[in-house]
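Sequence design from tokenized structure. All designs in this work follow the same two-part layout: the structure record, then the generated sequence. An example of the structure record is given first.
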């Protein structure tokens, strides 16, 4: 990152493959209308959510430095977040799910720094600073929930994806961008909506990432907490949507007890949610997460874990029972009796132990891939990893000797042993051979002319997960989303309206202004008759000043707007309710 800003030690320790997603938050990009949108949503939220949100919400606003009056500066937030062990970074819209979750694992909150347009003030499918800053940030001030979020990221970033997952990510990212952008042809929106719908309706077996993404949606984004018949809101998607936060409390939305079955409930980001899940407390979230993690290849390993990695066609890691970790793109597995007996990667591969790359086993050394048997030797009950030095010598597994090792599953390794690599506990984890031939029945898997054969030692696959064991083993700084967020279109008319908004903001803040309130309202009515939010802000100032004559004119203008623009009538009412503190507004 070239831009300088107030950082935080947590950001400083992020690996480069995550830092590639960070962009500077240019605060000067926020316009007076953007600030008014933030202020309206936050005033409505604080007023309404103080009654229906989990009690951590209002507390969290103070603890995380979120102000009602101004869009937050993340660099200022970082100074405050540091006190509760978190940090915040700005990104451009949706980022890949694995990366999003890995940021959480580092206690870093990802914030899409753009803000929704006035036309989408109630809800936008695009992530924005209202959703992230006003939704996610306050709740992480609750230590129990913050640990759930971190743990979710730690487990979630290891979930194995499918090729379809990335297609869905790209399609949803594009849909969110097009729906938020001004002037997008409806035909373009319809086309990408159909694309998203078709992908989501695919009946193929959902990947681990698809399932855990559902859990994330129904908790972190759209979660309710407490009693089924009287829940409170804690999900960021609800906390940041003035429309859906009210809708979700009605009987129109079915409330279900939260359990692992939520992983199989899909969602549509473009529609109001027909059902929501209620957790009795934050501790229950962690119980369900661990229950789900117990079913992941991360913990179950085995043949199914290797097969998930092969199907993902992406960088992943297999860990054997000795602790040795093989990271690469897995392309083949030979199985016998439901167990993997030989693993094969193609292309750059690295070997690690306890998430640290082994010296001499980087991607340049294993540039063409890596293959190794898994399991026990035929007719010998004692696995190689469990053999003492005396046992190894008895079976001729000894430096300088030529040996033929016949594994269960008809894998044969025949060659001259050069050396072995042991872990700190003394268990042998790699045996290196020269003049080596490896076969499966009549199929040759490795030939002497290919060079040194390094055999990983392990009687079973104990774990399989997405990504490398050691993040420094691979160049992961290469992700470029196929779509970019679209900035609001500037025009002479929009610039003139922005100046009127700034003028009212200056008056409210006691700063020098070019126009009086009356002059501003006259220009607004004449040149921007369809705008409603600035009239609400003008009404607020007039009420504070007891200028009832002009106030009646403004309210009459807003009443007329409610008739000509019925879709925003409730927004006008909502703004006036805040001003008059629930007094009757005709």
């Amino acid at each position: 990152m070239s831009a300088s800003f107030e950082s935080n030690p947590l950001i400083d320790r992020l690996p480069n493959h995550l830092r590639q997603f960070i962009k500077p938050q240019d605060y000067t990009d926020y316009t007076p209308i953007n600030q008014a949108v933030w202020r309206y949503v936050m005033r409505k939220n604080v007023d309404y959510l103080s009654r229906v949100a989990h009690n951590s919400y209002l507390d969290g606003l103070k603890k995380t430095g979120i102000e009602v009056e101004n869009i937050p500066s993340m660099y200022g937030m970082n100074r405050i977040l540091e006190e509760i062990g978190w940090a915040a970074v700005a990104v451009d819209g949706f980022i890949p799910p694995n990366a999003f979750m890995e940021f959480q694992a580092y206690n870093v909150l990802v914030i899409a720094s753009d803000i929704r347009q006035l036309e989408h003030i109630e809800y936008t499918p695009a992530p924005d600073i209202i959703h992230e800053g006003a939704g996610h940030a306050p709740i992480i001030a609750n230590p129990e929930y913050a640990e759930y979020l971190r743990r979710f990221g730690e487990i979630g970033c290891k979930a194995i994806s499918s090729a379809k997952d990335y297609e869905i990510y790209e399609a949803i990212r594009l849909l969110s961008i097009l729906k938020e952008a001004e002037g997008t042809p409806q035909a373009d929106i319809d086309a990408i909506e159909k694309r998203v719908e078709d992908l989501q309706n695919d009946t193929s077996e959902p990947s681990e990432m698809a399932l855990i993404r559902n859990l994330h949606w129904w908790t972190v984004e759209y979660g309710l907490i407490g009693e089924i018949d009287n829940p409170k809101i804690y999900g960021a998607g609800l906390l940041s949507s003035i429309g859906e936060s009210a809708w979700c409390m009605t009987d129109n939305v079915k409330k279900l007890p939260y359990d692992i079955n939520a992983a199989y409930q899909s969602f549509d980001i473009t529609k109001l949610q027909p059902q929501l899940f209620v957790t009795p407390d934050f501790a229950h979230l962690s119980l369900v997460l661990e229950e789900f993690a117990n079913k992941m290849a991360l913990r179950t390993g085995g043949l199914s874990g290797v097969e998930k990695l092969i199907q993902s066609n992406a960088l992943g890691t297999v860990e054997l029972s000795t602790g040795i970790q093989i990271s690469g793109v897995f392309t083949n597995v030979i199985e016998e009796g439901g167990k993997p007996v030989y693993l094969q990667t193609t292309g750059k591969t690295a070997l690690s132990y306890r998430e640290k790359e082994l010296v001499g086993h980087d991607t340049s050394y294993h540039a063409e891939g890596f293959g190794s048997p898994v399991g026990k030797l035929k007719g010998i009950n004692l696995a190689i990893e469990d053999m003492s030095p005396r046992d190894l010598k008895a079976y001729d597994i000894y430096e300088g000797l030529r040996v033929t090792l016949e594994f269960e599953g008809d894998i044969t390794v025949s060659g001259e042993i050069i050396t072995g690599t042991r872990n700190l506990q003394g268990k042998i984890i790699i045996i290196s051979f020269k003049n080596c031939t490896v076969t499966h029945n009549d199929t040759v898997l490795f030939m002497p002319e290919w060079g040194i054969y390094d055999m990983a030692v392990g009687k079973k696959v104990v774990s399989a997960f997405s990504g490398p064991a050691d993040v420094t083993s691979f160049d992961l700084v290469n992700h470029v989303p196929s779509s970019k967020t679209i900035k609001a279109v500037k025009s002479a008319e929009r610039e003139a309206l922005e100046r009127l908004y700034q003028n009212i903001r200056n008056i409210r803040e006691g700063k020098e202004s070019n126009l009086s309130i009356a002059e501003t309202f006259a220009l607004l009515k004449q040149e921007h008759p369809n705008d409603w939010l600035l009239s609400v802000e003008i009404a607020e100032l007039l009420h504070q000043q007891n200028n009832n004559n002009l106030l009646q004119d403004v309210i009459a203008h807003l009443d007329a707007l409610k008739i000509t623009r019925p879709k925003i009538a409730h927004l006008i009412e909502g703004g006036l309710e805040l001003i008059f503190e629930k007094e009757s507004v005709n």
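Residues 1-5 have pLDDT under 50 and may be disordered. We note this feature because it recurs in several other targets discussed in the main text.
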